[in-house]
# Entry
Amino acid sequence: MILKLVARRLAMLVFVLFGVVVLTFFISRLIPTDPARLIAGDFASEEVVEQIRVELGFDRSLFEQFWIHVGNLLQGDLGTSITTGQPVLQDLATYAPATVELAVAAMMIAVIGGILLGVLSAVYKDGWIDNLVRVVALTGVSTPSFWLALLFLLLFYGTLGWFPAGGRIDPTLAPLDRISGLYLVDSIVALRPDAFLSALTHLVLPASCLGLITMGVFARLIRASLLEELGRAYIRTFRSIGLAEHRVVFGHALPNALTPFVTQLGLSFAAMLTGAVVTEAIFGWPGMGGYILQATQSLDFPAIIGFTIIVGVIYAVLNLVINIAYLFLDPRLRSGAVK
Amino acid sequence: MRIVTGLRRRSRSLGLIFDELAGSPLMRLGAVLVATAIIAALVGPLVAPYDPTAIDLDVRLQAPSMAHWLGTDELGRDLLSRLLHGARISLAIGVSIVALSASVGTLIGAYAGLKGGWLDAAIMRATDVVLSLPGLVMAMAFTAALGPSLFNATLALAFVATPGMVRLARGQALTVRSEAYVEASQLYGAPSRHILLRHIIPNAAPALIVQATLSVGAIILAAAALSFLGLGAQPPTAEWGAMVANGRNYLTIHPAYPIAPGLAILVTATGFNLLGDGLNDALNPRREGRAK
Amino acid sequence: MTEAPLVQIDELELSFTSGRGRWSPVVKGVSIAVHAGEIVGLVGESGSGKSVTAMSIPQLQPRGISQITGGRVALAGRCTSQMSPSQLRSVRGGDVSVVFQEPMTSLNPTRRIQAQLIEAIAANTALDKAQAKARAKTLLLDVRIRDRERVLRAYPFELSGGMRQRVMLAIAFAADPKLLIADEPTTALDVTVQAEVLALIRDLALARGAAVLFISHDLAVVSQLCDRVYVMRQGEIVEAGQVTHVLTSPSHSYTRGLLDCLPEGHEKRARLPAPGVAPCTGSEQHVVAGGQVIALEEVSVAFTTKRDWRGRATEAVQAVKSASFNVRRGETFSLIGESGSGKTTLARTIMGLQPPSSGAVTVLGRAPLEAARSGRLQMIYQDPRSSLNPRMPVWQIVTEPLKIAGFRSDRREKAKDLLDRSGLAGDVLEKGPREFSGGERQRIAIARALSTDPEILVLDEPTSALDASVQAQILNLLLDLQDARGLTYFLISHDMSVVAHMSDRIAVMRTGEIVELGFAADKLQNPQTEYLQSLLKATPRLIGA
# Structure
């Protein structure tokens, strides 16, 4: 039964990824810009442009081009970046660890803070804690991330001087050996407390900036689903046998309330990878965001498509993992009693 | 417990809904904020003290003063005037994108939910595809390819915002479709159009209105982010996100420059979100128990 | 009874809020006493305040929206309304337990029965884990569950309603409480299961010397189970006393009315006395002489439960097995059976909503769906909340079939006329269905069904969601309409007294098969099958009445 469900999800994943490839390919081909002209530059002669066109296969039919594109993708070839001249996959691999470090740190802030605030808010429903949390969460959801970043800089860097303004690490320190590319991890492996501390202080502002906004989303979600769960009949059963309230909330209501939240996690992580574009731009964080911003400004379509497909894959795989996790979390799903 | 149900059921009548709306202070605050933004958008450009695009290099980067309440930017343009004009742009973008994506999304989603079968499956997979794309990056790519402009940014955001509406409308349609009154209507031989317009859309409306209201806030934020990155409004248009982007270089010497437009975005988005939350509480009270 | 009562509720007053600081009294000076080991009934219709009165004993009334405004609630001499949270915790489960109505949702859906049972035991005793596990097994034995190992490992959704209610009883008796509050514990169950659970409650209480406060809307159930009874109406106790005494010679007109409006004890097809209805006029002669209007030949319905990867059916459940019968014009033909017997599926097949997998159905000589489309065949649903679109004004609801049929003009006038005939007069056209009570909504549904001038009405448990007095009114209306218009009724019900009151002929269904078919008077007096005998035997009857 479980195998069958997993197989079905896998088939769906392949289908969705194929859709992503089709969509990105046609968007890149439907635009009114000639990629060959873009690569050749404004001053190249018509012959040079034509030559590039043939080289890259743009002279063939759209359909043919598409299958070549799919074939390349299947071999792990995301194309070559127009601006850097490097394979896109290699470029992304260079910049990914910084973004992943940022996104994971932000996610931790968001998840821990979101659950804490959401639970407090639901348990003390309509009290002052609840109202405070609701206002904070709602303001978080309504704050422009780029503006929050500026405020953070003004306050914590400009006025208080607690944290550095940008970058991932103090450039005057001896460089870290690249092992995972995650500075926090690498500095621990290399036993370099100075590097660790520096990486951490550089991470705090961008990660909280990215994390606080998602925290608002999570707190609202947890509050709503926990309240719904607390209103169910089985909660009354356990209250009626004299179970302590904290055991009712944390033993019964919260585990069940986290189910819809888990769905949101995958979505949010993918959203964070893209939300990082803005944050990275402001904090000079050398991640994929800056790379992709550069790519859009110079119409570097292989890079844009490559990034989009990678995010699509991450999103789809996370969703798959979550769906499978559900099968273990909810016995009703496992047996196929509920769809 | 039945008494509770009884009281709540009665409290749903129209008059009491308005009572409840008026009774929630947070929702009232949201309504006031949204109304302020709308008034600013409507009459702001008329009462703005200066032309928002008039360059006056003699008064560059002035701090707030009696002549320029919020000061001026690096080209000597009056920031207050630009802020007021910006309200019109942000609201127009937010409302038009949501109107577009909500109406298209509702029709597609409700129809898919009502019909089911392969059409429904196809539409759902299509929304899966669009949802798994990085929204902001897609919007960036779109606008970059089509040429950075406000109109293209609007189109791109509408494309990215629609699948969510489709899913919500479909979910609502599935719920309503299982109600006995829809089955009865089908027994009388009602065509799909009748069921869609008379049963499904009116009953899905509260959830959709709530979602649309919340979306206005989200879209205003996304549009401002695009403009901040230089992919939305182009100079010399007075757009809040672009203003923050320009002002960011003068953060320490003229903090009001980047902070004021950002605050305007925050206030407007908060207004729509508060309104959406309040509408949600009033229009979708906790589900009643089934009849016993 | 000289010793102090176990439960002593004195002049309890309780209010509910609908928000905005408005409070309305729901319990108005109620006094109740329950002595140790006694089984006491608390009876009333919906909204009478009976549940919340009982829940005030362990202080489990809904939080935030209700408050006690006066009076005193004492359990074993201690006032529970003034207890601290930790004192209340030791009282709950230890001194008093509750069994609720909803067996489907009263257990945590994602935890195994064993874990939930052990948690209940651990909350009120000092047993270690192994002892608690042993105790859990003993408890399941006490509630007469045979395959205990399977039940312990099962999740709630894997158990039937009756089984879950037994598990709930095991949880309630985990720490030997002095009082069990049973809040309509059997209302959602089939009659045979109900009888078993009621017997179980009585035996458990007796064996352990626990008192029971039994809340119900069903006088018959109360009359069989309880020693004493309180009758509640609109937040007040209107009558109290020994069950036999209250039921045989009620002193209050409300109790008399409650007893009188039940179909039992009335002549068949007699109009039942109900508020706003002239007293019994006796039945007119009801003769069925028409030809057949519904014909079923060897009808089977199967549902696919498993498919292979190509979507072909590999496993199916036979919901209806080879059913054959005719319904004649002007008669009331009733289909009886417990949940899962296939009666609802069969009704849907007759409506054309569920095509048969084999066999033939004709309604008025055509295919069922055509008969439904033409308006000659109409349906009344069980739940009038779900069958009326909450966002349509009443006049549009009532004339919706006409609009679909292309009838445009005078819809409001037509609606008024139809509502008049369904007993809903006055200025109601522009109101929404939420502004009406359950009974009124069912009248609106009936008016809608009448709009197309039908010949046949399929009635799917039309009064199960209604209070007894409202049920009486709806039954009266249905009988009046049948007499006036010669309607044919195809009635689906689990309520034997309604069936006996209304039906000319009956069919009894069990696991998809029709096991008995014949004249109602004959079959209900002399049931041929063991199944119908057990159904009739399990149906609670008023003692003494």
About this structure: Chain B has a mean pLDDT of 83. The first helix of chain B runs from residue 2 to 10. Chain B is about 75% helix and 0% strand. Chain B touches chain C through 36 residues (CB under 8 Å).
